Amino acid sequence: MLTNLLKKNINGVKQLKILKLFIKVYNNLMIRIGVDGNEANVEEKVGVSVYALNILRYFSQVANHETSFIVYLKNSPLLDLPNENEFFKYKVVKGNFLWSQIYLPIELYFHKNIDVYFSPAHYLPLFCPVPQVVTIHDLAYLYFPDDFTKKDLWQLKNWTKFSIKNAAQIIAVSKTTKKDIVKNYGVDERKISITYNGYEKLSQKSKDKSQNLNSKVKNKDPFILFVGTIQPRKNLDVLVEAFNKFIQTNKDFKLIIVGKKGWLYQSIFEKVKSMDLENKVIFTGHVTDEELIWYYKNAFCLTFPSLYEGFGIPVLEAMNYGCPTILSMTSSLPEIGGDASLYFDPKNSDDLLEKLKTLYNNNELRKELISKGKQRIKDFSWEKCGKETLNVIKQGPTLPEGQTLYKIPDDFSPSEYNKFALHPLQTWEWGEARKKTGVEVLRLSDGKSVFTLTLHSLVPSHYSLVPAYKIGYLPRSVFPTKEVFDFLYDYGKKNKIIFFKIESDVLKSSNNGTMKQLNNLLKSKHPLFPTWTQTLDLTKSEDDLLKSFHSKTRYNIRLAEKKSVIVKEMSTEEGFKIFSKLYFDTCKRQKYFGHTPKYHQIVWESMKKNIAHILIAFYNDVPLASYELFYFKNTLYYPYGGTSIEYRNLMASNLLMWEAIKLGKKLGAEKFDMWGSLGPNYDQSNDWAGFTRFKEGYATKFTEFVGSYDLVINPNLYKIYNAVYPLRKIYLKLRG
């Protein structure tokens, strides 16, 4: 009996240990995000408050066992905030004066239960034990300091500067805001991600939408609408001046100004009174969603005369309800309005007057703007905004303090990015091509180099019940530093990546030894790139190059020329179609199972402007051979080629390669990389022996790379992957 009891206790201890281990692993898999919810926890929500509320709504919807949220508040949550659930909780931290600088930091330090902290509105706590992310909406206070009270100006200038300096990642709501941050604070633009605000249909409960409207607007008089906080930056003086001129010939119109009083608002009320417009210009104050819908649907137009806007949510709301928009040609407004708005000089009331008259006298234009507005709003949603914001929070601040590795945002300058790229497969264009083929792309920079990675899902996305495991691929970059490997390992664990295949464009002789420091970096059993390639020095003259070729190669070149084979560069759609047919005919003939025609079409479309060139050899207008070549950073590459079985005795391929070499010299290339071959002393019976021998004829040099390595994240699934990999060849044969 004692023995049985002891056995039970021992089993219980074992189970407890297993449970504790499970909890430890479980907690490591979960990312816990702290959020400042105070901007959303106000009665009258406009601008930043609307943004904060919708971000919280999205977070509450996606909160799960992998991503949990604690929302910090000064006061109890209002009824319109999202409900709590198991993974989305509110934490009320009492305190008023300097709440985010005193009371919140104390809470964060004494209750270390988050992994990252997010502020949706400019201000970060003075002290924080975890990485922080902040959203910056605009820098109006720097451009219009006189429009702010001394207290607000001091707070905005100093606290925003502190937040920008100390944030691990910054979210800007527009390109304009991002440019302003870089310009005024000298921040590396790679630290800033652009996430556009969204919009959603306003809530509508009552059937009688006008029941609570101001008595002055219940009649059928047409009206011009403005929506926003009343403050100097909104430039309402110019709007009132233009409106006063407009009603000289359109006496029935009124101007409805919807929005609460902000700061320094007295002057606009005085101006309306001095111009005797009190019965024509109506200030509604804050209105309900139902009332705002009515205003949008019944307005002649929305006019937004702001001198500066970080975004401008009312523009999208108006478009949604069929209200045409007239916007000031400044800051982010053209970025948001696109071609669905009219624009005017915000300092010129006569220009605004002309746009109002144009819209009034051209009903077809009004219909066109309404139609374009309906299309424009499809680019913006709170779900998209929330998803992109969460991605920045989860993936951005994963580096230890002091590291300089950044995730590159999608709006980064392609030309600037390519300055740090080593190879065509690391260029911005290549990443965009892979995106269009449905592959996820991750771009990183350590300040010296860039790393373009592709993430390949093993299971189609519509199989939602199957875990979406992925394989990462980093082709032809510099060899990653340990810092990059550490980032990839952490990223891989959080994003269900089995392993990253690393195939660097680094010679074996120059490897820095990093691979020896990593236990989970294994020599790949299934490389995609050959370890060897052949290269040709293009700094020599054409005569010297030709003399260096194998005698048989020179003979074949002259034979093709004598037989009137002609090589043309045809880097056009027609040229690509010819190349594509020759390429896929060759693949079929040689039983090579590669990418699809659609894939190659996308690659060509993405690379043709700056990188890709097509050469075709003709005989009597019959295409016999074709290459798609890449030229990047003084190097010519030969990734793809195809030939015809017709007129093979004319040696068109030999002449084509010679013309490719001459094209490389013309473009300024100093080296020709043949993309891959067998190594020296190769087996003559190998399937690729003829291809290797053909390249050797041009006096090339054999060059060996460090080879293919796998950074293993999930060892068990990695073993399974390698075990079933041979089935891939069978699948490709069946597909072919």
UniProtKB/TrEMBL annotation:
Listed under GO biological process in this entry are: cell wall macromolecule biosynthetic process
Q: Which residues form the Glycosyltransferase subfamily 4-like N-terminal domain?
A: 47-199
In terms of InterPro entries, this protein maps to: Acyl_CoA_acyltransferase, FEMABX, Glyco_trans_1, Glyco_trans_4-like_N
Provide a Gene Ontology MF annotation, just one: aminoacyltransferase activity
* Top-level division of the source organism's lineage: Bacteria
Q: Which UniProt keywords apply?
A: Transferase
Domain Glycosyl transferase family intervals: 216-376
Record flagged with keyword Membrane: no
Q: Which Gene3D superfamilies match?
A: 3.40.630.30, Glycogen Phosphorylase B
Q: What is this protein called?
A: Glycosyltransferase family 1 protein
> Which species does this protein come from?
Candidatus Roizmanbacteria bacterium CG_4_9_14_3_um_filter_33_18
